[in-house]
Q: What sequence folds into this?
């Protein structure tokens, strides 16, 4: 056999990846990639070069880097992580770019420009142990560092890493300046006799636990658990859940709207409990038709519980299966199968919501089932009527004249099958309001009046159906009946405290116009946490209260996060520049607006938002007027 030599060397290996890369790209592809490129060119690559490192390979969200010295490796990564934190400080928390870093000192195999071996594998596993924005090093790196880097360390003890036979000592690097020189969690060395005694005691405990747990197997999760240190957002202080889009097993694409409607209804039902934190539909549906893992969803959205399920419909039967998973442990804690006659009663969504409430009430010890049961929707119990309501929503959110009429027809057909459906009455009301917003009505007053008529019918049938109150709130705001609108919003929030869209409307469309901009801003940020994958336009809407609060720099930053801001946001941008004395930038924005919309003026901008206080109305117009928008 010919003699084949393998080139090896000792090296410090760094593995990095971007936290929640997929979610960030989904939310803002251009912005994320632009900031990532700026980080590489202005910070990361120059630091690697300064510290004598070599980039071995680059993936979309990560790097593999080789250093000759572990001290250089750690110094480089510490400087980069501290700088990234400062660079991203002004970015909204759910959009910040953060990296995890793992560093190992070990033997590597050289293959051209590439490297591999256990030394590389350990670095990659340590990166997975690191916190977002943090650095995790192996014991071999720690032993070489001494006090040569101005950081502290947290001893994580021996870690059993995936596909690595022996446990690896690991240390979390403490980046805060005040932690320099500290070593926390370090375990004092014991005498051999005391070590043996401790080992013997531990063995006895393990044996005792094993005898009692043979049937339970808590160490064997059903799915890979999520890890708290990898959460992109902190876990809320109450039971948190995301309902993933149910899977259509019917083999019929025409059933998709029914399946989506089922998911939306369950989300809506759960959102009515103030004791739950429920991720909004918009964020939940970013995972539709994607092969995602439970732990990934949990870590990206910052929730503990994940509900997933499937829907299957034939001519005679509907079958729905659902299961609830505690993502932090990886265990299924509840599952159920529902079979219903296709032409029979359809209350599956209520059953699922109630079962989740019972289960989480048992697990968390804080949810009152009676409270949720009182607020469960009294919407359609007839499958055909429910079918029409889902078609109604599908048409309505296309938001054009033809689709709006089709949405109304579907809601009216639902009412023929179920005349006492409060939600169907409310949906008809929404279609009348949409006529005004679409600009397709000859008489906005009559359209608002019709919307109010249908809303009051919905409330008369069921005062706990929040959609009727929601329509009525918008009617009151259009008529400048601010106290009445406030009363309706209070009722809506009592009935449905977790609906991100409702919270956003309450903050921007009510609190801001009545002079409570600070509260409106806080409410809108709460809505964004409930809907981490919220529409990009929400960042722009935050500019409404920021502008009125005189926080013009922040208003400008918010609007710049929108790829194609609407004309009202462009106007606020111009007004903010003008209020800051940046007249050149203000004039340029106004010029751009008028080039596309030559008839646009202050009177049109004034109609964007109704204000109770004349001073707020004057402030609203002052900046754009100063920027040069004509009267």
A:
């Amino acid at each position: 056999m010919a003699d084949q030599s393998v080139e090896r060397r000792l090296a410090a290996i760094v593995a990095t990846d971007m936290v929640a890369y997929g979610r960030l790209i989904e939310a803002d592809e251009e912005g994320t990639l632009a900031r990532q490129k700026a980080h590489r060119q202005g910070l990361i690559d120059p630091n690697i070069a300064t510290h004598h490192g070599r980039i071995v390979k680059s993936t979309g969200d990560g790097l593999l880097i080789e250093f000759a010295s572990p001290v250089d490796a750690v110094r480089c990564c510490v400087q980069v992580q501290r700088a990234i934190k400062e660079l991203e400080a002004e970015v909204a928390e759910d959009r910040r770019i953060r990296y995890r870093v793992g560093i190992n000192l070990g033997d590597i195999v050289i293959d051209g420009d590439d490297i591999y071996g256990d030394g590389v594998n350990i670095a990659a596993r340590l990166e997975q142990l690191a916190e977002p924005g943090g650095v995790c090093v192996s014991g071999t790196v720690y032993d070489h560092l001494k006090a040569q880097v101005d950081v502290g360390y947290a001893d994580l003890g021996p870690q059993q890493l995936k596909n690595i036979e022996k446990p690896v000592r690991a240390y979390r690097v403490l980046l805060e300046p005040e932690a320099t020189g500290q070593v926390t969690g370090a375990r004092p060395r014991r005498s051999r006799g005391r070590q043996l005694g401790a080992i013997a005691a531990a063995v006895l405990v393990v044996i005792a636990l094993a005898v009692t747990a043979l049937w339970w197997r808590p160490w064997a999760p059903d799915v890979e658990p999520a890890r708290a240190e990898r959460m992109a957002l902190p876990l809320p202080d109450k039971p948190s859940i995301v309902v993933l889009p149910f899977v259509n097993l019917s083999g019929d694409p025409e059933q998709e709207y029914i399946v989506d409607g089922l998911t939306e209804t369950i989300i809506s039902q759960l959102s009515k409990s103030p004791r739950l934190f429920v991720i909004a539909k918009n964020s939940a549906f970013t995972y539709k038709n994607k092969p995602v893992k439970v732990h990934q969803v949990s870590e990206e959205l910052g929730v503990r519980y994940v509900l997933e399920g499937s829907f299957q419909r034939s001519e005679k039967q509907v079958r729905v299966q659902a299961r609830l998973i505690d993502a932090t442990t990886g265990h299924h804690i509840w599952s159920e199968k529902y079979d219903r006659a296709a032409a029979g009663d359809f209350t599956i969504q209520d059953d699922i919501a109630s079962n989740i409430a019972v289960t989480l009430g048992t697990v968390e010890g804080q949810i009152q089932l009676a409270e949720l049961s009182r607020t469960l929707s009294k919407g359609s119990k007839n499958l055909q009527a429910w079918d029409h309501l889902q078609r109604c929503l599908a048409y309505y959110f296309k938001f054009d004249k033809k689709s709006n009429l089709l949405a109304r027809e579907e809601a009216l057909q639902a009412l023929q099958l179920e005349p006492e459906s409060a939600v169907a009455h409310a949906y008809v009301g929404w279609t009348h309001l949409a006529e005004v917003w679409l600009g397709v009505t000859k008489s906005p007053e009559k359209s608002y009046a019709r919307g109010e008529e249908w809303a009051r019918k919905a409330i008369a049938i069921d005062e706990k159906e929040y959609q009727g109150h929601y329509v009525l709130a918008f009617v009151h705001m259009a008529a400048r009946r601010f106290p009445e609108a406030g009363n309706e919003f209070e009722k809506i929030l009592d009935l449905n405290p977790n609906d991100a869209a409702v919270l956003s409307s309450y903050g921007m469309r009510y609190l801001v116009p009545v002079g409570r901009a600070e509260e409106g801003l806080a409410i809108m940020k709460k809505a964004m946490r409930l809907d981490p994958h919220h529409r990009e336009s929400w960042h722009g809407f935050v500019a409404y209260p920021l502008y009125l609060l005189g926080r013009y720099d922040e208003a400008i930053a918010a609007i710049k996060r929108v790829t194609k801001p609407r004309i009202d946001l462009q106007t606020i941008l111009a007004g903010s520049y003008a209020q800051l004395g940046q007249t050149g930038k203000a004039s340029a924005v106004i010029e751009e607006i008028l080039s596309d919309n030559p008839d646009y003026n202050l009177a049109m901008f004034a109609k964007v938002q109704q204000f109770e206080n004349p001073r707020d109305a004057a402030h609203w117009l002052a900046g754009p007027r100063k920027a040069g928008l004509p009267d």
Notes: Confidence is low (pLDDT under 50) at residues 186-220, 361-380.
